[in-house]
Amino acid sequence: MQTMGNGNRHKCLIYDGHPTEQLGVVVPLLVDGLADHWRCLYLGDPDTVALIDDALVKRGIDTEREVDRRALVLSSDRSHLHDGRFDPIAMVDGLCTSIDEAVRDGFSGLCATGDMRWELGADDNFDHLLEYEARLERVFREKPLRGICQYRRDILPARAIRDALVTHSAAYIGDTLNRDNLFYIPPELLLDASTTTRAAEQGEWMCQQIVRVLDAERKRDLALAALEDMNRDLERRVAERTADLALANRQLEAFAYSVSHDLRAPLRAIKSFAEIVINDCSDRLCDDGRDYLARITGNAKRMGELIEGMLSLARIAQAPVALADISISEIARDTIAELAAGDASRAVDVVIHDGLRAKGDPVLVRAALANLIGNSWKFTSKRANARIEVGASGSEGDRRIFFVRDNGAGFDMRHADRLFDAFKRLHVDADFPGHGIGLATVERIITRHQGRIWGKAAVDQGATFYFTLPT
User: Fold this and answer.
1) Model-level pTM greater than 0.70?
2) CB 3.0 to 4.6 Å from 148: which of 68, 113, 121, 172, for a disulfide?
């Protein structure tokens, strides 16, 4: 948020409700002022001063040190009110003295802000607000002064808000800055309208304001027309892309059908004939011949598995997602039980957090967890003290972050961008066999649930995969 600069150094902030609503504008002003070596002043009631102090501390400002070196002044002083009365000329003169003192003390100038209800006190003092702000505007032009005058709309007289708008060329409405305030009237017109010349100048100024309003309306109408054109063009492009996507899906279905029927049949024939030769003619083959045939059957088997993986990815990309309330904890326990039953020799320390729940497609989420936990089971196979953990860690909006963690082989994070690419592997088959389909499948499943997945690991120090699902 831009709060300072040479232009529009005199701003007002108009907000409703609790004093905390000023923090988004006032705190950046003070933080920037301290960073630029300006003396910073905040004037308000004691409770609000304490609120500002706490907000500055949370932004990393050592307020005690800044106060000790007189760079920061947090004040509830009301000595400028004489018997409760506010004198705009005396107040402006006092502010000029404070600016000069700040410069003499080695600061670049004074950065001042505060609550106008506290500064002016009684409601009848707001009768002097127009004169005060107009005189103050002149000071901003002539001296090194930056500032924001704060007006809490729900507790101030309506005339105070009106006078704030006509005396500030830039105004925050809430946390939105309007740099071109059409209600603004320069101080030379506000403070002296007694002569015919001044009256003429006021009339000319108002004419200019009317022209600016009309020009702004014209620009707005042009912008709306341009936006409507853009929306129409966007709708057309979306319709075209939707048609292209539908065509691509039909082509993908045709490809999947071709893979399923046209490639698998000859592949099975190659594998079957090779096995017949091994079984029936093995005694007539040399060692090299038997080795070659074993390689043919092994590669045919691997190619068949790759084809099944491709078909699985295609099915997941097109399968409808039926959301239901599911237990991640229960699915994880079922998956571990299946893995343990298939490899009874393994001793793995498994930790599954209780109460892990999400909204998801039961079949697809089960497939995703089977792949993630299956990977952890595989990559901890060379660990004497293998450990797998399934749990949750925080949330992203309305989505909970789940994780599967292990102390297995891990991987080099420099290659993490390849994790979810189909058929890309970070480990060689000799160490850990696989096809590079599992994580690609998981990524597509999580994406179908409008979630995201990412991994963190180090070589020989295990891996953690995080993924989000709606709750």
Assistant:
1) no
2) 113
